[in-house]
């Protein structure tokens, strides 16, 4: 029995997987994607901290109004307590991720095409026994994988920061809402 018969069909290398894996290795070796993802994380963190400061300001205003009412001998029930929605805090950060994430996707595609052209490997790749759609699909799969991985890292980091800053984490329904966006 040959070695190929022992490898499951879903694990055998295909041109699409091979090209995607090569592109991902090249992008991670270049460190550009890591630097841009770190920048995205920093921008999202600043947006999250800004939202947290605004929330603390709302809470301080509520506490001051409540103390004033109690000092006047009135009931504190007249003022509605501010509600804490973790997704409201993440709104600015998610907007940052959407905008900068789109720019990162464009840069990933451009750098991939520029590197193929600079090394003149595109003509060589197209002489191989594969279809052109496989080449394009491999490039697209790599770009989507890099972008999804970077965004998942940033969102995971923001979720941890939110949990430690506020003591309230995101529930499964909140994470599903973010994934839809």
Report on the structure:
The protein is mainly α. It has one domain (15-180). The protein has helices spanning 3-6, 15-30, 32-71, 86-119, 122-126, 132-166, 172-180. The longest helix has 40 residues, at 32-71. The chain is elongated. The chain starts with a helix and ends with a helix.
Question: How is the secondary structure organized here?
Answer:
Blueprint: H1 3-6, H2 15-30, H3 32-71, H4 86-119, H5 122-126, H6 132-166, H7 172-180
Helix pairs in contact: 2-6, 3-4, 3-6, 4-6
Short overview:
Helices cover about 80% and strands about 0% of the residues. With about 180 residues, it is mainly α.
Low-confidence stretches: none
Separation of the first and last Cα atoms: 48 Å
Structural shape? elongated
Largest sheet: none
Query: What is the SS-derived class?
Result: mainly alpha
Tally of separate domains? 1
What share of residues is helical?
A: over 70%
Strand tally is 0
User: Gyration radius, to the nearest Å?
Assistant: 24 Å
Tell me the strand percentage band: under 5%
Number of helices: 7
Could you spell the SSE succession in H and E letters? HHHHHHH
On the 0 to 100 scale, the average pLDDT is 81
Give short descriptive properties of this protein.
181 residues, mainly alpha, 7 helices, elongated
């Amino acid at each position: 029995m040959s070695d190929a018969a022992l490898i499951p069909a879903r694990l055998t290398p295909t041109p699409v997987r091979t090209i995607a894996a090569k592109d991902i290795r090249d992008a991670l070796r270049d460190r550009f994607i890591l630097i841009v993802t770190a920048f995205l994380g920093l921008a999202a963190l600043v947006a999250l901290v800004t939202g947290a400061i605004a929330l603390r300001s709302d809470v301080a205003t509520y506490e001051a109004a409540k103390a004033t009412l109690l000092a006047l001998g009135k009931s504190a029930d007249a003022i509605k307590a501010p509600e804490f929605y973790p997704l409201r805090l993440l709104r600015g950060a998610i907007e940052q991720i959407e905008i900068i994430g789109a720019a990162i996707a464009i840069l990933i595609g451009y750098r991939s095409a520029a590197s193929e052209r600079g090394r003149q490997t595109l003509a060589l790749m197209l002489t191989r026994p594969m279809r052109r759609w496989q080449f394009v699909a491999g490039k697209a799969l790599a770009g989507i994988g890099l972008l999804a991985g970077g965004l998942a890292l940033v969102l995971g980091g923001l979720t941890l920061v939110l949990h430690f800053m506020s003591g309230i984490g995101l529930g499964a329904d909140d994470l599903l809402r973010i994934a839809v966006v």
